[in-house]
Amino acid sequence: MTAVDQQYQQVVKQVSYNVANKVLPMAKLPETLLEAYEGLFRELMDDKANAFTNAWNALPASAQKLMTKAEFHGFYIANAWMQLSRAAQEIADSAESEEEMNNNEYDGVFGRLAEQSLKECLRKLKKARTDRPLLNSFGQVMSA
Q1: Which CA distances in Å does 136 have to 61, 74, 140, 142?
Q2: Residue 77: is it exposed, middle or buried by C-beta count within 10 angstroms (0-12/13-18/19+)?
Q3: Half-sphere exposure of 120 (CA within 13 A, CB side)
Q4: pLDDT digits (tens, 9 = 90+) for 56-106
Q5: What 8-state DSSP symbol labels residue 92?
Q6: 77-81-86 Cα angle (round to 5)
Q7: At what angle do helices 109-128 and 132-142 cross, to 10 degrees?
Q8: pTM for the whole structure
Q9: Cα(53)–Cα(32) distance, rounded to whole angstroms?
Q10: 144 Cβ partners below 8 Å, 6+ apart?
Q11: Model confidence pLDDT, tens digit, residues 97-113
Q12: What is the largest CA-CA distance in the chain?
């Protein structure tokens, strides 16, 4: 990994952590949830399908100027983590037992949530071009 890649990943990780920490106190998460977060982070950071990269490249220049690609990547990963956490909680709450939860099919949930999260983040960033309070809120949630 090059120095630029390491710096990019460091920014992504810090922004993602800061945003997620505003909603879920990351230091208090059980070990299993931290492992799940790390797994999600790695998968979305790797962007093997180029979904994030293609979406970023398709953004108007006026939207790309609002924050760096790394900052937006971190915001997206945190948003996906929060959506996945909510979905997992809803699944757990709706299941009568762990056995029922294991018997139900949840294939593709992660992919759909990640795609939905990316679309939502793109929409917010585009809207922030003309919505100063929204742009300011990006800065607030991404800061430590």
Answers
A1: 19, 16, 6, 10
A2: buried
A3: 14
A4: 999 999 999 999 999 999 999 999 998 888 877 776 666 665 655 555 555
A5: H
A6: 150
A7: 130
A8: 0.84
A9: 29
A10: 14, 18
A11: 565 555 555 556 777 88
A12: 50
